[in-house]
Amino acid sequence: MPGLRIGRSTVWVLALFASIIGMSGCSTTDTFEQPAPLPDVDTTVDFDQVWDMSVGDGHDGSFLYLAPLNAGDVIYAASADGDLVAVTPDTGKLIWERELKDRIFAGVGGDGDQLYLVTREADLIALSRENGEELWRKSLPTEVLSAPQSNGSMVVVQTTDGRVLAYDAAKGEKLWQYESTVPVLSIRGAAAPLVGGDVVIASFANGKLMALAGDSGQPIWQYEVGQPKGRTELERLVDITGQPIVLDRALMVVGYQGKLALLDIQTGREIWSTKASSLYSPALGDGNIYLSSANGDVRALRGSDRDELWVQDRLAWRQLTQPVVSGDYVVVADFEGYLHALSAKDGSLQGQMEFDDEGIRVPAQRLANGNLLVFGNGGRLAVFELRKSE
C-alpha cells in the first residue's frame, strides 16, 4: 500500500489515503476505510505453480517496490538486504547469485549490458548482467524508489524530491539534471521514467507529465494529469505513480484523483481523457483497458470509447496492484498477499490463492509464454500458469 510523504518524513497509512497516523505534531481525526474481507470464490481457475524460490528477505519489512526485471531469457531479482539473482524464466534455475554489501532501495533496472540498483544510501550502482559484478557507482542527492531506466547509452533515475538525473551508462558520468516542484504532501512512490532514444518521459507528484530532451534534460512539453483541488493537502494529492504505457505514437497515463488519458507522444496533445483515480498503470487486452482504482474497484473500459464494461467492487480498499491480463483473466494481488483472478469478460471472481503472508506490493508480470511472474514482499519469487479447475 502506498504511504504519504511530508517533506523529508514519511508516514504509513493503514488504508488508502483516508487517514494519516502518528506523525510528529501532525494528526487527523479522519476515519479510514476498512479493507473488504477476503471474498468467497467459487473457483473455476487455479494458479498452477511452475517454480518458486526465495530471494533474500524480499522487502525486509520496508515500504519498497523491488520489482524483478524480466529480460526475456533471464529474470533478475533483488531483495532489500542485498541478494541479487539471475534465473531462467521457464524453470527458475539459478544462473548466478550475488550478495551485495548494500541495502537496496530501488531496482532492478537494466539494458543490454548492465543492471542498475539504488542503495539505501542513495548510490546508483551499475552491475554486469553476466555475473552481477559492480562496474561503477555514483552518489545521488536523495532517495530513489523507482527502478533506474536505461536506453543503453544513458541511465535515468528519479528522486523522491522531484529531480530527474541522467548518467552516462558506460562510465556513470552525470549528463544533466531536471528539477520539478514537489507538493508539501505526496505519496511515497514514484513512476519510473520512460527513456527513449531522444526523449525522457517523467511523471511527478504535482500531477504533471513531462517530456524532456534526452541530450539536455530541457522540457519539450508538459501535460497536467491531475489538478490539485480542495482545502486540505490530502484532498489536493494528484501524484502520478504508475509508469505511462507507450502505444505506438501515443502514451497512456493515469494519476491519483486525476484522469486516465491518451496523449500524442511527440506533442503531449490530449487525444482523449476520462476521470479516474489510480496508483498504477492500466493493463490492456482484447481492446479493453483494465484499471485498479484507488478505492480497490477493478474497472474494465472499452478502449474505443471508454465506456465502462464492468466493475468488480468485492476487493474494495485491499490495496490492489496493477492488473495483468493473462488469457481470459485479469489478475491482481493485494496487501494480504492474495492473488485474485477475475474474468476479463464480466469481472467475476474466478480464482484466488494466498501467496505471501507479508503481502504483495509489486504487480505480477506476464512472461512471453503467458505465465505470470509474482514477487511477494517476503521474498518469494514464483511463476504460475492459470489453468481451468478440473
From TrEMBL:
InterPro entries: BamB (IPR017687), PQQ_b-propeller_rpt (IPR018391), PQQ_rpt_dom (IPR002372), Quinoprotein_ADH-like_sf (IPR011047), WD40/YVTN_repeat-like_dom_sf (IPR015943). Keywords: Cell outer membrane, Lipoprotein, Membrane, Palmitate, Signal. It comes from the Bacteria. The keyword S-adenosyl-L-methionine does not apply. Transmembrane segments: none annotated. It is a lipid-anchor. PANTHER family: CELL SURFACE PROTEIN, OUTER MEMBRANE PROTEIN ASSEMBLY FACTOR BAMB. HAMAP family: OM_assembly_BamB (MF_00923). Part of the Bam complex. Belongs to the BamB family. This is Outer membrane protein assembly factor BamB.
